[in-house]
Amino acid sequence: MIKKVLTDNGIYMKGTGVEVKIKCLNPEHSDSHPSMGVNTNSGVFHCLSCGYKGNIFSYFGLTPPANL
Predict the structure, then answer these.
(1) What is the pLDDT of residues 5-33, one digit of tens each?
(2) Calpha distance 26→41 (Å, rounded)
(3) Given CA atoms 14, 50, 5, 17 in this order, what sign does their dihedral have?
(4) Angle at the Cα of 41 (from 15 to 13), degrees rounded to 5?
(5) Residue 40 CB-half CA count within 13 A
(6) I need a labelling partner for 20 at 20 to 30 A (CA). Which of 9, 39, 48, 66 fits?
(7) Dihedral angle computed from the Cα positions of residues 45, 47, 48 and 50, in that order, rounded to the nearest 10 degrees
(8) Can you tell me the distance from the alpha carbon of 3 to that of 43, in angstroms, rounded to the nearest whole number?
(9) Nearest partner of 39 among 68, 4, 5, 2, judged by Cα
(10) How many other C-beta atoms are found inside a 10 Å radius of the C-beta of residue 61?
(11) Which residues is 34 bridged to in the sheet?
(12) Nearest to 38 by CA among 22, 16, 59
């Protein structure tokens, strides 16, 4: 579900495990290399470079599924 939200929004993912790396979603951080980890089970993200964090569902204005 999380990977589909990312791909539907044009976000390139690196990795295949529970945590994938993407470019930071913080508009104030020009990220040239994927530095943000996204947990593909919960949707929680955290940038290892600038510290920006949140949830994929909230970020894209979506309602998370009931099973999360």
Answers:
(1) 999 999 999 998 899 999 999 999 998 88
(2) 21
(3) positive
(4) 25
(5) 15
(6) 66
(7) -150
(8) 9
(9) 2
(10) 6
(11) none
(12) 22
- pTM for this entry: 0.89
> Any idea what DSSP says for residue 45?
E
Do 40 and 56 meet the contact criterion of CB atoms below 8 Å apart?
no
Q: Please, which residues have CB within 8 angstroms of residue 15's CB and are 6 or more apart in sequence?
A: 21
CA-angle at 19, arms to 15 and 23, nearest 5°: 65
Instruction: Give the span between the Cα atoms of 66 and 20, in whole angstroms.
Output: 22
22 CB-near residues (< 8 Å, 6+ apart): 6, 11, 12, 13, 14, 34, 36, 38, 45
pLDDT tops 80 at residue 61:
yes
Tokens of 6: 């990312």
